[in-house]
Amino acid sequence: MKKIKIIILLVISLIAIIFLIRLLNPTEIDDVSPEISCPEIEKYNPDILYVIPNFEGNPISKNISFCKEILLLNKTLALHGINHTHREFLYENISQENLDFAISEFQKCFNQTPEKFKPPHLQISSENKKLIQENNLNLKTWFNQGTHKVYHCNDSGILPNKIIRIF
Predict the structure, then answer these.
(1) Residue 62 gets which letter from DSSP?
(2) Which of 46, 78, 96, 137 has the least CB density, counted as fewest CB within 10 Å?
(3) In CATH, what number is assigned to the domain containing residue 48?
(4) 101-119 as b/e: b if 16+ CB within 10 A
(5) CA angle at residue 21 from 17 to 26, to 5 degrees?
(6) Which residues are CB-neighbours of 69 under 8 A, at least 6 positions away?
(7) pLDDT at residue 136 greater than cutoff 90
């Protein structure tokens, strides 16, 4: 019985520590694109925006007003895939040329080079992971999702944004 109490206490302590870490770490929003409605930016006031550079074949640099609006928010900007297709970084072998295109779109739009990268659906193959690291992008995956409050534009994540806000 004493072992069970200790285990329960440890589990509760771990949950409390994770909750505290999530509370203290910067908040993030995934799936930022001119083609995706994102009232969550105003609602949750995130610190980091993960931007899709070419969603549905629409390069972000072609939407000057979007670029200006996002820059005016004065947030940390990061790269979120290339096209944001279903697990594109898990099942497709991304070429340097494809990644260069995404980085170029980001640079044209925001006049800065991305430092962080998050693959769509947090899935990435070892080959694509190597490519991301060779390009000096700080790769964010599951651990990042667990230690940060990560909202999704248009409330499209696995968990609803209102649940993420609580935890």
Answers:
(1) G
(2) 96
(3) 3.20.20.370
(4) bbbebbeebbeeebebbbb
(5) 170
(6) none
(7) yes
161 pLDDT band, cuts 50/70/90, is confident
Report the predicted TM-score, pTM, of the whole model to 2 decimal places.
0.91
Amino acid 71: pLDDT: 98
Q: Is residue 14 a part of any domain in this protein?
A: no
Structural domains of the chain, count = 1
Minimal CA–CA distance to 152: which of 23, 21, 28?
A: 28
Give the closest residue to 108 by CA, choosing from 69, 57, 67, 65.
67
| Phi then psi dihedrals of residue 82, to 5 deg | -115, -60
Domain assignment present for 20: no
For 86-113, write each residue's pLDDT tens digit. 889 999 899 999 999 999 999 999 999 9
34-64 per-position pLDDT tens digit = 999 999 999 899 999 999 999 999 999 999 9
Query: Domain residues for 38?
Result: 27-166
1 compared with 78, residue with greater pLDDT: 78
CA separation for the pair 92, 113 (Å, rounded): 24
Tokens found for residue 125: 């193959």
